Amino acid sequence: MTTGTVQFLNHEGELTSHPDHEAEISPDGLRKLYHDMAWSRRMDAEAVTLQRQGELGLWPSLLGQEAAQIGAGHALGAADYVFPSYRDHGIALCRGVDPLDLLRMFRGVTNGGWDPAEKNFHLYTLVIGSQVLHATGYAMGLAKDGSPGAVLTCFGDGATSQGDVSEAFNFAAVYHAPIVFFCQNNQWAISEANERQTRVPLHQRADGFGFPGVRVDGNDVLACLAVTKWALERARSGEGPTLIEAFTYRMGAHTTSDDPLRYRDGEEVAYWNLRDPLARLRTLLEARGWADGAYFDTVAAQCEERAVDLRARLRATPDPDPGDIFAHVHADGHALVDEERARFAAYQATFADAAGRGE
Amino acid sequence: MVREFTMPDVGEGLTEAEILTWYVQPGDPVTDGQTVCEVETAKATVELPIPYTGVVRELLAAERTTVEVGSVIITIAEETQEAQEEAAQPGGTGQEEAPPQRQPVLVGYGVSDAPARRRPRTPAASAPGTPGGTRPLAKPPVRKLAKDLGVDLRVVIPSGPHGTITRDDVRAALPPGPAGHDPAPPSPPVPAAPSAAPADRLPDPGTAARETRLPVTGVRRATARAMVASAFTAPHATEFVTVDVTRTMKLLKRLKEDEEMAGLRVGPLLLVAKALLVAIARNPHINAAWDEAAQQIVLKQYVNLGIAAATPRGLLVPNIKDAHAKTLPELARALDQLVRTAREGTTAPAALRGGTVTITNIGVFGVDTGTPILNPGEAAILAVGAIKERPWVHRGAVRPRQVTTLALSFDHRLVDGELGSKVLADTAAILEDPNRLITWS
User: Fold this and answer.
1) Taking the CB of residue B55, how many other CB atoms lie within 10 A of it?
2) DSSP element (H, E) containing B47
3) Cβ of B169: how many Cβ atoms within 10 Å?
4) Is A254 a known active-site residue?
5) What structural domains does chain B harbor?
6) Does A345 touch chain B if contact means CB atoms closer than 8 Å?
7) Could you say which of A89, A104, A234, A254 is catalytic?
8) Model ipTM?
């Protein structure tokens, strides 16, 4: 960690302090954070397994980034709106998104999965970095509406090489948009190492645009929570954007289609394994006597139960009606679409196993 | 209840995977989510978890075989009270929970459906309102050809992928006799000839017993693909020169005693490498690549020197990065390390990428020379033959001298004979008189 990185819980599970920020420490709060991190990890592992069984087309694992996501997720207020990337399952869970809806999208049975307006959590964006511009525009709109909320947008270290992200930084700075740029620097843009993406530490980019940039220990949930909370509060009170660089590590593959053994070595993974976000919080909880073995067993058992339930619900997910593809082309329908729908239905009916006439 | 687990598409759009290891055997109990095997695809090596709880009945694919996505690789007898009886009478299954007979593969990805599993069409498919429903599949140029030849595509038997009609199908559907109408003459319209070829490949039952068929996998497959790609995209030209390397061998002897080189592997390959690097510095355009997509020649200002190595995994060509910038001791150290890791079979993938020129030291096998095939993406490869004592005219008299033959293959798209000859001649000249290492660098 470089100096200036905000950290409250080091990798040995000891509390530390920082001159500019303060952590909220309460046994209940810490247990809740631990629980949510543990569930996001277990849910993620289940999704990887389901992909390997052919139930999902793809899954981007969050393994290693639980603290960054659960910390940021807990910092959000009800009126805040999130523009996620595609790996932000932990934040999705904090926003009350049913994990089944995340899985359904990666199963290819829905184009979205949840109602963004209901969850204040936008749909996943797989185009790298484009959501950062959308988020900035949305934040500018919130300011014009006089809304009490702020926007949090998530992106990775690789996305910072996209022009969209720089444009968003500049718009947000010039218009004082109420937005928090939450960059999870997991060190690898698929197979491209961080040092080949940038000459300066990512958080320093903000200086050139004229707003603060902070690096936090992305594997320290307390630091991620405290700094995101502070940045959101700045945004809501009209002080403009903040860039947070959560310095973390992607322990797994980029997605289930990727094999990291081909481009990174085991020593690096071992180094980060010692910095595991859950292990350090568990150490703290145990050292302070705020949780014991029975507590952790209960959490693990709960997560297991929910994972088994998630698996069963996913396997029972029906395929969508092929005709659904025509449903949202026009808000009020259109004669041409109606014609195409009818033609497609007639084509489908020519198959022997079409509904209602299977042998 | 017997469940079948099919090879899933573990990447996006993969069509096949190779089974590396089975972790279970028939008779082993398994639980939902348990890892049963490791598979390798074009993208990644991954472990597959089984989605059922029960007992392994059968493994349907052997290790080291390549399996198509969607084919069954393992069957599981699911543990229910009446598992045995159910297996005996397949009619009465699935009362408690109807088995969802869904293929565990995704909509929209490249699952190669075996023809048998293709969704059957009802015979009366031609509803009047759906002209699209019965339209034969053919690309526009094929439709044009059919139109020109007066062939009705609806009577043509398709042989292309996904049931598409090809040009040959259209020609085959022409009535026999006046075949002269064909406006595209290059391929003969009579499809009789190919029938001989498959017959050739059928093993004679008499000799089959004395033949062993090995699956082509891993490095062997990669080598085959790279060699075919190289040999049939880059027009190769090879030149040879036989050279007296006695002075180089004397220099080697002195270098072995040099303090700077203490503990380093000092052999002929080291000085051949150095000589080639100096020759490249004098003729930098040889260190280049042909970019087919961009239609450009890429000149490289760095030399990543590849060394072809026979390793436990097969032929690999790891390279020494920035070899042009290395001093002789540094080059010796890099070479030593490269050879050692290659022999141990621990060459890192990064060491195999980004080579710019290659040396293949076939002399170690005792042969004089050969015509090397370019490492794909490179413009030149130097083969070094065995160094042998031979009668040689030296200062007007025939004397025993140490002589070797060098061969340089180059990509004639970007390297002309003049440039290739200069590189080879310079390399040979340095080995003949290694003083040139000093005067030329």
Assistant:
1) 17
2) strand B45-49
3) 21
4) yes
5) 2-91+104-115 (2.40.50.100), 131-192 (4.10.320.10), 220-439 (3.30.559.10)
6) no
7) A254
8) 0.71
